[in-house]
Every structure is written in C-alpha cells, then in structure tokens.
Amino acid sequence: MGLFTKPIKTLDDLFVHTLQDIYYAENQIVKNLPTMAEKASEPELKAAFQQHLTETEGQVRRLEQVFQMHGQPVKGATCQAMDGILAEAKDIISDCDDPEVCDAAMLSAAQAVEHYEITRYGSLIAYATQLGRADCASLLRQTLEEEKSADQKLTRIAEGCVNQHAA
Fold first, then answer.
1. Which of 69, 97, 100, 109 has a 20 to 30 Å separation from 125 between CA atoms?
2. Cα(162)–Cα(167) distance, rounded to whole angstroms?
C-alpha cells in the first residue's frame, strides 16, 4: 500500500484508485504537451500535439465529471508509470541533436503515453460496467475512443513522414 493511499479491498476501491491514477496522468500530459508541440519541427506533428492538448484538457474535465457522478472527491494519485514514460521521453529528447530524429523520439514517446491511457481507460470501462455505472462507462468510453484515434493519427504521421525524415 502506498504511503498516502487507502487499501484497495473492493472493485469500487480499484475503480476509484485507477480514476485517481489516470487523472494524475492526464494532468501530467497537459503539462508536457506544450513543450512537445514547441519542440516539434514537423508541422503535422506540431499540430497533432496542439490538438491533443485541447482534447486532453477536455478529458480531464470528463474525469472530473466521473469523480462527481461516483460521489468521490476529484484528486490524483501519483502515477509512477506515467512519470516514468515522461521522464524517459525527456531524457531521449534532450539527447537528440537532429530535429527530425527528435520528432521521431517525441512521436514514439507520445504513442507510449497513448498506449498506457488506452489500457487504463479500457480497465475503467470494465470496472464501471461491472459496478453498474453505465453513466461513468459512457463518459470513459468517449475518452477511450479519442485516445485510440490519437494513436492512429500518430501512426499515420510516423509512417507518412516523420520516420522517413529521421532516416
């Protein structure tokens, strides 16, 4: 058990903890996307980061709604996985001398973030459904679809130009 967390004894506890985890993660993403957009040299990648920032801000608001609907205070719990993904991305990006290689590194890091989010939202939807919270599951499903779409867009950008330019 973490230092400032309560024990997870029920599926409801796990649902709330996972909400707190992804809420923290989404807020970290909101803090990091502007830097990534600024550093991106490929215009399509820069635009994708800027668009996803706006989308992520909406996802944070949607999570706040889920907390409220479920009768829980809105709060995050440190997500070590997201902290690790973002720290690794910063390290790799800081080591890149070539802007085109940096774009490829940032794109790869962004996809790692998306894949983490997709797993979290999939689990949250399953938990909410099992707990009889179709209302929460519906909001979470909207975000899951946005995350999948963002991942597909990043793949198209990688395959369409970024990886070729980096080579």
1. 109
2. 9
